[in-house]
Amino acid sequence: MGEPGREKERPGPSAGAGSRKERAGCGEPGRSLLFPLPVAMVVLRAGLCPGLSEDMIQLLSANGIRTVVDFVSSDLEDVAQKCSLSYKALVAVRRVLLAQFSAFPANGADLYEELKSSTAILPTGSPSLDQLLDSGLYTGEVTELMGAPGTGKTQVCLGIAASVSLGLKQHVLFLDSTGGFTASRLYQMLRAQTEDEEEQLEALQRVRVERVFNIYEVLRALQELRDRLSQQVVSSMGPLKVVVLDSVSAVIYPLLGGRQSEGLALMMQLSRELKTLAREFSLAVVVTNQVTRDSSTGTLKPALGRSWSFVPSTRVLLESKEATWGKCSTQRAASLAKSPRQPTGIQVELDIGNGDVLDPSLVTPTQGL
Amino acid sequence: MQREVGTLPLAPVLRARLAAAGFQTAQELLDTGPCGLSKEIGISREEALEALQVVRQECHGHARTAEGSSSTRKCTALELLEEEQSQGFIITFCSALDNILGGGVQLTKITEICGAPGVGKTQLCMQLAVDVQIPECFGGVAGEAVFIDTEGSFMVDRVVDIAAACVQHCHLIAEAQQEEDHQKALETFSLENILSHIYYFRCRDYTELLAQVYLLPEFLSEHSKVRLVVIDGIAFPFRHDFEDLSLRTRLLNGLAQQLIIIANDHRAAVVLTNQMTTRIGQSQSTLVPALGESWGHAATIRLIFHWDNSQRLATLYKSPSQKESTIAYHITSHGFRDVQPPAVTPSTEGTELNPRKRPRTEEEKQQ
What we know:
- The structure holds two protein chains of two kinds.
- Chain A is built from 15 helices and twelve strands.
- Chain A has helices at 4-9, 17-24, 54-62, 68-73, 76-83, 87-101, 108-118, 127-132, 153-167, 183-193, 197-206, 215-230, 248-252, 262-281, 305-309, and strands at 121-122, 137-138, 142-147, 171-176, 207-211, 240-246, 284-289, 291-293, 300-302, 314-320, 331-338, 347-351.
- In chain A, the strands form three sheets. In chain A, strands 5-4-6-7-3-10-11-12 form an eight-stranded mixed sheet, sandwiched between helices.
- Chain B has two domains: 5-60, DNA polymerase, domain 1; 82-338, Rossmann fold (3-Layer(aba) Sandwich), CATH 3.40.50.
- By secondary structure, chain B is α/β, with parallel strands linked by helices.
- In chain B, 41% of the residues lie in helices and 20% in strands.
- The radius of gyration of chain B is 25 Å and the shape is globular.
- Chain B has helices at 12-21, 26-41, 45-60, 77-86, 95-101, 121-131, 156-177, 180-188, 191-196, 206-222, 236-239, 245-265; strands at 74-76, 89-90, 105-106, 110-115, 144-149, 198-202, 226-232, 269-274, 276-280, 285-289, 301-308, 311-318, 325-332, 335-338.
- Chains A and B meet through helix 9, helix 10, helix 11, strand 5 and helix 12 of A and helix 1, strand 1, helix 4, helix 12 and strand 11 of B.
- Chain B: It holds the Pfam family Rad51.
């Protein structure tokens, strides 16, 4: 069953997913998420389908038909004449190509059942943050945490890793691009949640850390993860549920702006990888982002601009309460900036204190951000 | 390998041509081969070969990481924990500061020190350049230091004073404890040695600074004992005479990523000093670190030094593992030191001992 509605929003997810599905049978049985390739972009090659031979391809490309869409949209009688190929053969090839590359329609009820069975809600380790996110992190979606330096984004990510690896006994992949991952802090959080040393060590082993310091390394790491998951290699990577990318702006910022044209393209590639990972393998993806100061109004706004703002489905803004350094506190305020389920503007208080990412109270909802 | 062409590190022109020709995955590129590739997208054979080599390298792994990266990039949290626990810290000789930092300046992380002029940033940098060389038996990391100076505030005579005080301190500990390896270590821990292991670079503008940081990995692979890289005054070259602010943000972010790669691959601590600037709000103005909001994310650990009447204070503003707190410190002729609590009976103090000795080494000579 395909998802034609979503196909429009995300043009063309992973290439070759269709054919790979046939070969390796990826995904659990019953979860047939077929992502068709955008038909326009596939070049005709020998072996793409049974009737298509090398000579045929040469003749076709000599007449300007190079991709699947050229083939499918051209008048076959005309083509048969110009290339002196058999009309019947061409029709057969077209039928196979259409079957292979077009999307299958699905109805909403099936889609709903599908989502209900494959989506999980993961607790973040902080009850008030869970409340803000409508009971937790949803798998299949990208959630973003943004905030100024020192507001606790990495702490919240560590809290999520601790809660998922200890509480749910699932694996976590932590992609660290700023060097901010401190295993001793994670250990401290685990120690605060359980006394049993065995459990603590096991939980530590379930958190995998990869240090990725530029965009190509991030893309490579995500690609490797995708390969591992689709081949269902269970050995080192157990049941993975959460992928954390801390932080996405550190790797993308050097690429944006100026006369560089590929920054935006790479950012969109990254967003596509993250979203397809989340959707295909039912993972919760958490990214952290910076905030920048708007030059005209002086207010804080999330970094990476408007294009990135469409990528995460939920955005949480973290702020600290004080501006002076005389009085230091571990209180932070988290407010919901974008959500598909909750009204925006809800605010809660978080304590990123010593024991673990706990929270004292739920502040009454305020209007606006 | 099903890696998409758009995610490979090729030149944008090449990428655009590949997309127009209909190539989707890296596997298709590798299957086509250099001749087919050069014919289809109209580039020369050499360019096609180069591009394919890049693709092969990306897909089949980690040939790139063979340049002396001692720490692996992928591991579980447990392995990282063991690594962190066995890693040393660079002590600052001010035990209060060491405490709030969790033991001292951490290796493999970027620490930023912000403060108003005259509050002691360069003093701390010079102290750290000496302290990183303390031998392991005295609790140091026995490394060398790289000092990149952009403001010209590095004073060799001051370093001599600090180093002499440090050597004397170690001598005192050795005499108190009388262990073999202490004596042996002290033979190599002399003033000349300390000074010869601080590698000093002077950069006069941002181009030189960027070039120096770019060349640093090579330098560090030759001098593998370096455990500290100090950039004194990262704000100075970027603040004066820089018109294009978005270019500045881009350069700074790129610089931050390069520094974190250096810190990680060579297991060194990177220490940067930053200036302060005034931000004018609606009703009041506050003193904030310079170089903008996005630079605040570059450093993993941020310390802000400020004044409170005539007392110098240090606040830990950002850290992944320690709480925010403020402590007081002193700068004496011997360097960076603690503030002695005012009303305390001197327990045992010999006259030749430095009264500002660190409370940590409590083996004071009994007179």
